[in-house]
Amino acid sequence: MQFREAQLDNGLKIIAEVNPSAATLAAGFFVRTGSRDETPNIAGVSHFLEHMVFKGTARRSAAAVNLAFDEMGANYNAFTSEENTVYFASVLPEFQTDCMDLLCDILRPSLRQEDFDIEKGVILEEIAMYEDHPHFRLYDNLMRRHFDSHPLGNVILGSAESISNMARDDMQAYFDRRYSPTNVTLVGVGNLDFDAMVDQARRTCASWQRLEASRVAEPSRPVGSRGVITDAKLTRQNIGLMCQAPSGQDERRFAAQILANVLGDATGSRLYYALVESALADDAQMTYSPMDGEGALMTSVSTDPEKVAQVLGVIDEVFRKFIDEGLGEAELQAAKNKIASQATLSGELPMGRLTSVGFDWVYRSEYVPLARQIDVMFAVSADDVLTLAQQCNLPNATLLTLGPLEKLPA
Predict the structure, then answer these.
(1) Which of 28, 63, 96, 393 lies most in the core, judged by the most C-beta atoms within 10 Å?
(2) Same domain, 243 and 169
């Protein structure tokens, strides 16, 4: 296993975790842009642009792009978050040149007006579809309520209004600014030839125009408000709580990962036993999201509307008991073992390591081998986790529910 890095004259960063014993390779472009980098008039443009990247280039039509991936037998996709847009593919080593050529090509899409108009309809359908999913609705509205006017509260898909009013030129201007090579990292993992990867990127990407892409870095100021979204069509009450947590640059992120596992892992956690095993809820989880300069712990629960008061009481009791008493070594070790197992199983394949290697570089400009990542996590103490829980102020989290209830129980 060897880590390699390079940078083109235009600022494009290239990194790789080279593993000659791997059976495949994975490669991807990590673009440091997402919904937090949008203004209200172009809300949703990052995700819309992700779709458009696959709609053709000066060299390839949309059909040719898809066919080229299929002919390599590639596993490929893309995703957009509040902070990043990632395009990736996994192939056999003999297809490295073809895969890199295709990924580099699609990162400079044509953005044709006809494709833009057609895809706008697709995005509007996606927005409507998400409105039918309580989990997504709750997440979007909870992020907006928790982060308030901070751009991390921006909805990834945008709104029907912002997408409908968006012009192709708006997208082009956003692309020119945010897809500058200074804001992009090319990441490779697995059985690959790094020197060939750099040479190919230099031939294909050196002409990309260099611009500076800034990001609003003001800290958020959550106030811990409470709210209800009433939807009489729903039969379940969906509960979301969110509080501040360590950022993606904070060393306490490992303690936050353990805290979320102990309190809200999908099975075997304190919330699971207190709510799901006791038949008070059909789902109860806590997730940790490290972000650029910010972080969040989100608790999500699905329950019967008549049980909301009891469920909220149990959640508060679980949080306060943890803050008062902390956790024992056995519970701490079990959480660490689960996290280590998940990371190791994911890291066995280059595709599983790609996002970890990529985001370590995007957020902290560092390479962290999997073994060292696990060692650092195992070094976290029970006191570290307890201290973090007290700092996060879990009982005073932002609260939002979605379902048939018209108001929160007293």
Answers:
(1) 28
(2) no
- Report yes or no: 99 and 371 within 8 Å, Cβ to Cβ: no
The DSSP H or E segment spanning 355 is helix 350-364
Q: Which domain holds residue 14?
A: 2-205
Structure tokens given for 98: 């073809």
Task: Give CA separation, 325 vs 288, 317, 318, 320, 390, in Å.
Answer: 21, 12, 11, 8, 11
> Are residues 49 and 197 located together in one domain of the fold?
yes
What is the pLDDT, as a whole number, of residue 214?
86
The pLDDT of residue 249 = 97
The per-residue pLDDT for 347 is 95
Residue-wise pLDDT for 304-316, tens only, equals 999 999 999 999 9
Domain-located, residue 221: no
Tell whether 210 is covered by a domain: no
As a whole number of angstroms, the distance between CA 71 and CA 196 comes to 21
In sign, the C-alpha dihedral spanning 307, 310, 314, 316 is positive
> Tell me, what's the pLDDT at 410?
74
Whether this model's pTM surpasses 0.85: yes
